[in-house]
Amino acid sequence: MTKSELIAQLAERFPQLVAKDADYAVKMILDAMVDALARGDRIEIRGFGSFALNYRPPRVGRNPKSGDKVLVPEKYVPHFKAGKELRERVDLGES
């Protein structure tokens, strides 16, 4: 599902919500989540899952084209862990 499909489905489920307002709501939620992760905060949505940052230490990698060693710097990568309720619903194939 793409962001535009999510917006369309939200507007369809809630007829009182204009598509423009649904678009704004989705963008605001995603912006708030990105801002929280950029600050290093953890996001927890009960029944759905949690978003956090995982630390990747610096390491020596290889350039696949030349085979030369390359220093890969440390970084933080976003990580999503599905909640129990989401895992169970996906396992049962529920929508």
UniProtKB/TrEMBL annotation:
Which example biological process does GO assign this protein? regulation of translation
Under which name does UniProt file this protein?
Answer: Integration host factor subunit beta
Q: Which family does it belong to?
A: Belongs to the bacterial histone-like protein family.
HAMAP family under this entry?
A: IHF_beta
GO molecular function, one example? structural constituent of chromatin
Q: Which UniProt keywords apply?
A: DNA recombination, DNA-binding, Transcription, Transcription regulation, Translation regulation
Record PANTHER family: DNA-BINDING PROTEIN HU, INTEGRATION HOST FACTOR SUBUNIT BETA
Q: How does it assemble?
A: Heterodimer of an alpha and a beta chain.
The family database entries (Gene3D superfamilies) matched by this protein are listed as:
IHF-like DNA-binding proteins
Q: Which InterPro entries match?
A: Hist_DNA-bd (IPR000119), IHF-like_DNA-bd_dom_sf (IPR010992), IHF_beta (IPR005685)
Free-text function comment from the UniProt entry: This protein is one of the two subunits of integration host factor, a specific DNA-binding protein that functions in genetic recombination as well as in transcriptional and translational control.
**Which Pfam families has this protein been placed in?**
Bac_DNA_binding
- Does the record's keyword annotation contain Transcription regulation? yes
Q: What is any one of the record's Gene Ontology cellular component terms?
A: chromosome
SUPFAM superfamilies reported for this sequence: IHF-like DNA-binding proteins (SSF47729)
Instruction: Tell me the SMART domains matching this sequence.
Output: BHL
Taking the record's annotation, the residue ranges forming a coiled coil are: none
